[in-house]
Amino acid sequence: MNTSVVWFKRDLRVHDHRPLFEAGNFDQVIYLYGFETEVMESREYDASHHGFIEESLSQLHGLLKKQGGGLTVKIGKFPQILSDLYQQLGFKHLFSHQETGNMRTYQRDIRVANWCRSEGVSWNEYPQFGVTRPQKEGGDWSSLWSKFMNRREIVPRRLPHNPLENYPQTIPLDQTDTKTRRQRGGELRSIKTLESFLNSRGEHYQKSMSTPVLAGNACSRLSPHLAFGNISLRRVYQRTRDQQAFVRHHRLPNWGVSLASFQKRLNWHCHFIQKLEDAPQIEFDNFDFEYDGLRSSFNEHYFSLWSKGETGYPLIDACMRCLLHTGWINFRMRAMLASFSANHLWLHWRKPAVFLARHFLDFEPGIHYCQFQMHAGTAGINSMRIYSPIKQVKDQDPNGEFIKKWVPELASVPSEFLAEPHKMTIFDQMAYNCKIGRDYPKPVVDHEKAYKSAKEKLFGLNKKLVVQT
Ligand SMILES: Cc1cc2nc3c(=O)[nH]c(=O)nc-3n(C[C@H](O)[C@H](O)[C@H](O)COP(=O)(O)OP(=O)(O)OC[C@H]3O[C@@H](n4cnc5c(N)ncnc54)[C@H](O)[C@@H]3O)c2cc1C
Questions:
Q1: Which atom of ligand 1 is nearest to the CA of 221?
Q2: pTM beyond cutoff 0.85
Q3: Does residue 392 sit in the same domain as residue 422?
Q4: Does the C-beta of 149 come closer than 6 Å to ligand 1?
Q5: Nearest CA to ligand 1 atom 6
Q6: Which of these, 166, 280, 422, 457, is most buried using a 10 Å CB contact count?
């Protein structure tokens, strides 16, 4: 029998899945997902990711079964997992999507490529995003991106059967998922999420995306689905393009600007992943080596307060606590958390970035490490923002709705004090049932001093730098 293997990685869907389509030409196919022990042991992996993958696999298995297939789920290391299957069925073709992951998965792919070469197995990898490999010197990236996004989606067809079907419902992990309010995985859920965004939730996307009070509903919330490939970026792009034509035709107010802004971000998604594809070392090293040694010591106490949401800055603490419960916060608040750790607390970006990677349900290495470095000021760009945790309260949560939800110690404190509760007099603290230093912490650092110091140090290395709050 002519056998092939489809290796599912971060592409847990059947629709618009080229490897699945290509494998359909064989007599029998092993539809493989491998839980990788070395990924599960990494500091970027959280029980919430594990749960999201299990939910995605459950829907994937159901959809494959409808097409004639069914999953084979393994736990272990690659290429050993492939080698074991090879002993059983001696396949000659492996199909998968390309992955621009972290160093672990990059090195695993090198091992798999070597194994395939030694066994005479052909490994056919297909791009799943608008990321080019290798990036063509002088090539027009944007037109390649558009070409990829506008190519027709691949519709699933009848699939050959899987002779080694084996789908356990769960794979044990020695951590508990504490994100009680996170999004759940699966292709069908991703389609519902997209449709609810394009048909109702997204109308005020453009003006609501920055405030944590509204962003949870107004943003698409597609990020974990894109990170684990429950839906293809091309499908999201094309559905949005069609919806743009619809709202134009019907002259629907607000939608035009919101959908244009959303479409732009789909391009940024690939733009940042391309950066990691071209320079994998930015997962560990400063983009610009001029910044090496800038933050030489690491204050563990500051890191601990930041990571628990106990800095004494209400919006920082609310964002961190929200993240720890839900696995998501909006872009502006992520930027503020990253900026605060790197600039106010003067922590080297790597450890806080790994911490957030673990807690972002949508962790996508290319976007994540680039964005973190941009907000730490190590990307070598000439303008950056050091977000003021005080001004952001006034701009993004003036009535304190978000803060009070996640920092209940401040529930009785009037909104006028929420940006700087430590400025309440002792009488105010008694009146509002919140003693600073006992019920809620004093600020870990003084904002004005920390901001000024960070700005001076960064400016010392880049005279063209323009820093705003
Ligand atoms: C420090 C930091 C770390 C981040 N880490 C991640 C990460 O690990 N994974 C991740 O998907 N996004 C990351 N982002 C980008 C952004 O915050 C999230 O994509 C967004 O909040 C996800 O919610 P959404 O799907 O509702 O976004 P929407 O606003 O609805 O955007 C739709 C999609 O566009 C892409 N996108 C949106 N904003 C950006 C951006 N600024 N850069 C690149 N792509 C973007 C994402 O794929 C997103 O799902 C990070 C931002 C910062 C500042």
A1: 26
A2: yes
A3: yes
A4: no
A5: 368
A6: 280
Distance 202 CA to ligand 1 centre (A): 15
CATH code, domain carrying 289: 1.10.579.10
* In-domain check, residue 152: no
Q: Helix and strand tally (H, E) in the chain? A: 21, 7
| Claim to verify: residue 306 and residue 440 sit in the same structural domain | yes
Give the tokens for residue 114: 């070597």
Q: Which of 99, 126, 153 is the last residue of a domain?
A: 126
Give me the percent of the chain exceeding a pLDDT of 70. Answer: 99
Looking up tokens 């009488």 gives: 427
Structural domain containing residue 308 = 283-468
Q: Which of 204, 265, 283 to mutate to test the pocket of ligand 1 (most atoms within 8 A of CB)?
A: 265
Q: Are residues 78 and 198 in the same domain?
A: no
272 lines ligand 1 (CB under 6 A): yes
H-helix or E-strand spanning residue 383: strand 383-385
pLDDT digits (tens, 9 = 90+) for 160-180: 999 999 999 899 999 999 999
Residue length of the chain: 469
Q: What are the pLDDT digits (tens) for 385-442? A: 999 999 999 999 999 999 999 999 999 999 999 999 999 999 999 999 999 999 999 9
Q: Which atom of ligand 1 is nearest to the CA of 223?
A: 49
